[in-house]
Amino acid sequence: MSAPETSEGDEGKAPPEEKSSTRVCAETTLDAVAVVGRGMLATGSAILTVVQYTAYPIKEGVICVMDTTGEYFTPYLKKKAATNVPTFRYG
């Protein structure tokens, strides 16, 4: 068998060192923290979306009740269509 060929630039370089157990543990811990952090961000974003989609119909209902109550107690402020206004019809 022949010896493995080395390129001209590899002469005099030491082989790469293995990572220490402390570094491996730290990298694994940081990966786990990153996964948990991304999960928390995704969960928070989903909760915000649910709250927005749930709150909108409630808000619209409250505004409708406020408008209806206001029209009932102050009928002179009720918006009405103007009469004797020319209109355009087709067909």
Topology:
Layout: H1 21-73
Q: Summary?
A:
The chain is mainly α.
What does this structure look like?
This protein is mainly α. Helices cover 58% and strands 0% of the residues. It contains one helix and no strands. It has one helix spanning 21-73. The longest helix is centred in the middle third of the chain and has 53 residues, at 21-73. The N and C termini lie far apart (96 Å). 0% of the residues are buried. The mean pLDDT is 86.
- How many distinct helices? 1
CA-based shape: elongated
State the distance separating the first and last CA atoms: 96 Å
Summing up helix and strand content along with how strands pair, one would put the structural category as mainly alpha
The helical percent reads: 55-70%
Provide key terms for this protein.
91 residues; elongated
